[in-house]
Amino acid sequence: MSADAWVAPNASVIGKVRIAADANVWFGAVLRGDIDEIVLGERSNLQDNAVIHTEAGNPTIIGADVSIGHAAVVHGCVVEDGCLIGMNATVLNGAVIGANSLVAAGAVVLEGTVVPPRSLVAGIPGKVRRELTDEEVAGLLGNSARYVPRSKIYRAAEV
User: Fold this and answer.
1) Using one digit for the tens of pLDDT, what is the confidence trace for 102-148?
2) Sheet holding 6-7: strands in order across?
3) How many helices (H) and strands (E) does the chain have?
4) Does 1 map to a domain?
5) N or C: which end of the chain has fewer CB within 10 A?
6) In this structure, what CATH number is given to the domain that contains residue 52?
7) pTM score > 0.90 for this model?
8) What is the model's pLDDT at position 1?
9) Number of domains making up the chain
């Protein structure tokens, strides 16, 4: 784990997990790298009660500037840079979420799904609904950027 990262005291980090600089893991979140590797990229955040797990042969790789929403499940997949995975969304084994994409709250991205960059994915099963605008992509990046200074406040308070 990078010295610049922050992990909430009641979050669980188990097994083969790499947490990059300024990444932050919030209360009740679980990163369980007991089967394969998990990577949480720079400035990415794993929000309260989210779960990251793997499958043999399917590590979970989360790029830089990614927000994984409250209670989301990200399992054995790749989430490229600049994405937001909404609250209670699920991304399953072998899926690839292209850079600067938004997976809507409650969506379920099925195994092996490949989502192009800058996509809005919604529904069960998750389907690409449209391409994101430049303004929407900036909003995704702004969301992850807001979590970094917030995590530093908690870290300084030794919470």
Assistant:
1) 999 999 999 999 999 999 999 999 999 999 999 999 999 999 999 99
2) 6-7, 24-25, 45-46, 67-68, 84-85, 102-103, 119-122, 127-131
3) 1, 18
4) no
5) C
6) 2.160.10.10
7) yes
8) 86
9) 1
